[in-house]
Amino acid sequence: MKKFFAVMLAAFSLVIFASCSNDMQESVIFTGTKATVDEFADATKNYDLSKIISDEEIANRSFYDVTTEDVANASGAKLFRVPGKCTFVLFPGGTIVPIGAVTGGNGVTNPYCFDLDGDGSKEMIFSLSYDSNKTRHGSVKIFDFEEKTENNIMLVLTTSRKYIWEQPDTDFCFEEEDGKLFICKASVSVDESKMQITTTKTERYGQLVYEDGLYKVR
After folding, report:
1. What is the tens place of the pLDDT at every residue in 121-148?
2. At a CB cut-off of 8 Å and minimum separation 6, what does 32 contact?
3. Predicted TM-score of the model (pTM)
4. Which of 77-91, 125-139, 192-206 has the lowest mean pLDDT?
């Protein structure tokens, strides 16, 4: 049975989706929460994050908990997103690791946890889109919870824009079928004012695999 997952948040998420098949579009609406932001704010006291997030933003709690049930179950970690900037992984015990520190685009979306390398521990695969002048880039990245590092960026979509305000589709979501993980192209929109992320799968792109020590798309 096929499982489509863009993002699900435990208890406080708003999730709306349609039935899944390769010839239909599915939409998922994910909403972040402010309920647990104090936990992240407290952890920042042990770090100098001034190049990413200001003291004022921390004091005003200008970020959202965007932890998915999938991420929480796989690692016990939480995800916090600063609108328009970066996403942070907060581990139990207070360790903070920034991911997707980019400019423009939709940033980090659609995290999905899957054991790609078969070592018994799940990695977090996520979509990352960002801007460079009039070019929108889309990529898939893998975060290793044990190593606490991002691995093997794969730049797979680049789209030029005629106007800076255009929002081309260069994002991804992920679906699991028969024990395999597939990358799907997706249309993603982010309302940063209330941290609402809408993802619509458009088509399957390829299977994500780990071969000869490398992550590959085939």
Report:
1. 999 999 999 887 778 888 999 999 999 9
2. 9, 64, 65, 66, 81, 195, 196, 197
3. 0.84
4. 125-139
